[in-house]
Amino acid sequence: MNRRQFLAASVSTALLGSLRGADAGRPPRILLRSSWQTVNIGDIAHTPGVLRLLEEHFPAAEVRLWPSNVGDGVEAMLRRRFPNLVIVQGSEAQRAAFAECDFLLHGSGPSLVASKDVERWRRETGKLYGVFGITVSAVDESLRELLSGARFVFFRDSVSLTLARERGVSCPVMAFGPDGAFAADVRDDARAAAFLAARGLEPGKFLCCIPRYRYTPYWEIHSERPKDAARHARNEEMKERDHAPLRAAIIAVARETPLKILLCPEDRTQVALGRAQVLDQLPADVRDRVVWRESYWLTDEAISTYVQSAGLFGLEMHSPIMCIGHGVPALVGRFAEQTSKGIMWRDVGLGDWLFDWDDANDMKRFVPTVLALARNPAAARAQSEGARALVRARQREMVSLLRQSLRP
Questions:
Q1: Among 113, 120, 239, 373, which residue's Cβ finds the most Cβ atoms within 10 Å?
Q2: Is residue 314 within 8 Å of 209, Cβ to Cβ?
Q3: Percent of the chain residues topping a pLDDT of 70
């Protein structure tokens, strides 16, 4: 759907039926269902991203956050950036939010994560709801009905959008809508600056690199979760093959450019993984140019670090998303075990920076592309700014449609 079609659909949707928007005389109230977990800075980033979009493009609205988890320092981080944020926790607060809010907005995620809560909202309130930036990998009858009943559904990759249409989802507006994490702007500049200074990393003179297993080993994070033997075996089978290209890129950058490398995590398991599969297997002359971050961090410190880098490459998705959201170049490696969300790189005009880790021919581009980024940061920055502008324009239109849906 192009911009003209999007706007036409938006107007049509706003005129369909009787809108249950906010009462005249008070601000519209939005209940944001988001904040899925805290062990991954990408899952954390969904929430501040959408909150910023609402703050910027719909300042008249009152927004309440209904989270799954804002522990481990995440609540404090959110309150520093959004000091007036109301967080809905506990059954009494949820009942009050259901009674007082006008619209349920499901935030970005790997699926309609809170589908049961969206269904409950629809069943108990009869009020409007919509979805901002999700991936879908399958559509059964219940999901088809739930998505079809939404005021709008935005998919964060075109593969998900096509699948929903093919499976008969009939929501009035369905379109590509970038992941909310693109807009995340939480920062901890002081902590990032202290870390970089202590490790000898100068602004603009280092690249970030993120490792990843084929499957996130959540059993290493949550002791109550049993080990998935099949997934563990697949991780072990592929870990050398998957990290060899990262090592090759690091070696090329270290030996052919003046840049250093920061090896950093997007989730908790990648701290140890980065050392074992990348740092410890580098030649001695290269290892001295690589900084290994030995601890997990939160989204604010990560963003404050990324914006001082020359760019990022690796096997995760949301750190690249946060980079592009700030105009920082970012290359993405994806493999079959991951969802279709990586296709969003093509959707925002960055197809040259997307690499199929299972395609040997495609992988021939990887090290040369990392080197090109390192050698010509101005050109890479211009490309990332183009994608950023596209994302910002589409996200502004997404909020515009939400705003129309809440007119009294």
A1: 373
A2: yes
A3: 94
Token digits of residue 278: 């990348």
pLDDT tens, residue by residue, 145-178: 999 999 999 999 999 999 999 999 999 999 999 9
Which amino acid belongs to residue 376?
Answer: N
pTM greater than 0.90: yes
Cα separations in angstroms, 283 against 183, 240, 278: 38, 16, 10
Gap between the Cα atoms of 146 and 192, Å rounded: 42
Is the distance from CB of 122 to CB of 129 less than 8 angstroms?
yes
pLDDT, residue 388, reads 98
Let me know: does 259 contact 374? Beta carbons within 8 Å: yes
Enumerate helices (H) and strands (E) in the chain, giving the number of each: 17, 13
Q: How far is it, in rounded angstroms, from Cα 5 to Cα 321?
A: 26
Pairing of strands 311-314, 330-334: parallel
pLDDT in tens, 108-123: 999 999 999 999 999 9
Residue among 62, 134, 73, 122 nearest 98 (CA) = 122
Rounded mean pLDDT, 194-216: 98
Q: Identify the band that residue 15 occupies on the pLDDT scale cut at 50, 70 and 90.
A: very low
Q: In whole angstroms, how far apart are CA 193 and each of 291, 309, 389?
A: 15, 12, 27
What gap in Å lies between CA 169 and CA 152, rounded to an integer?
A: 11
With contact defined as beta carbons under 8 Å apart, do 208 and 262 qualify?
yes
